[in-house]
Amino acid sequence: MKxxxxxxxxxxxxxxxxxxxxxxxxxxxxxxxxxxxxxxxVLDEAYNNGVRFFDTSPGYGLAEELLxxxxxxxxxxxxxxxxxxxxxxxxxxxxxxxxxxxKEHSLKKLNEQWEQSQLLLPNLGLYQIHSATLDTGVLDNxxxxxxxxxxxxxxxxxxxxxxxxxxxxxxxxxxLSIEVENETLFxxxxxxxxxxxxxxxxxxNELQKLSGPFIIKEALANGRLIPNSNYFDxxxxxxxxxxxxxxxxxxxxxxxLAYCRSIFPKAIVLSGANSKAHLEANIRAxxxxxxxxxxxxxSAFGISSDxxxxxxKQLKWH
Length: 318
Prior knowledge:
Elements: E1 6-9, H1 11-14, E2 19-20, H2 32-48, E3 53-55, H3 63-74, E4 80-85, E5 87-89, E6 101-103, H4 107-117, E7 124-129, H5 142-155, E8 158-162, H6 168-176, E9 179-180, E10 183-184, E11 188-192, H7 204-207, E12 214-217, H8 235-248, H9 252-263, E13 268-271, H10 276-283, H11 292-299, H12 305-313, E14 316-317
């Protein structure tokens, strides 16, 4: 069985910590060998449960390296992969590191990271700028844009970018207008969208007309959409999500993921699961379809993009 819209994001299986609200941190000493083994198990679990789309990045620690080896073992042309360039993982798998990643949107970094990322071919179908922003100037860098277009032509891959922050809409508007050799360069976007931050809903038509996929990340808002005691303002949202979860016999995580599909029916929604239990819970979203009324009621809980990203900045690496 191939899942229709759920993919796996590999950040959580490639590095020992991630930005979330986790309170019960593992007290065991970090073991890199065991971590690799666990990551490969998650990839296998995803595949066995029908996942055929995997998203990765050099910035995700060893995730891209794991995927390269795993793809060779699977040898399945039906597996589609996206990766990104622009972030370098620098924490050296130390959970208590002060700095975990460094952004650099230079032509040098693009060429450097492509040398590793191209090992994902022929499963690699999408190559993205990792977290494109206006301040790095990457969307005005003609050398970078021409190189991306060159890679597109040479390897028959789609070029895209990911967005993060309260100016996602600004990045999207600028990127949609960029052409190289009279061709629209960016035909895929990976952006944050969920019940809380719905800012990209206004671009639904544009995003679903692209030749490449629109990919939704952080559909669970880094854990904020899993009922918890940290966000009293979301008490009514959690209550309603609980009612829906009981109705459809799934967890609240599946409700959050299904909401994204309700708004963007053609999108790929990423699960960030790093365990069998979380993955199986997320996958249950494939089996349900929220009604129009339920989707509208969930949309009513949306907050401003500024508030959303202000809250996210307060989250720690766990």
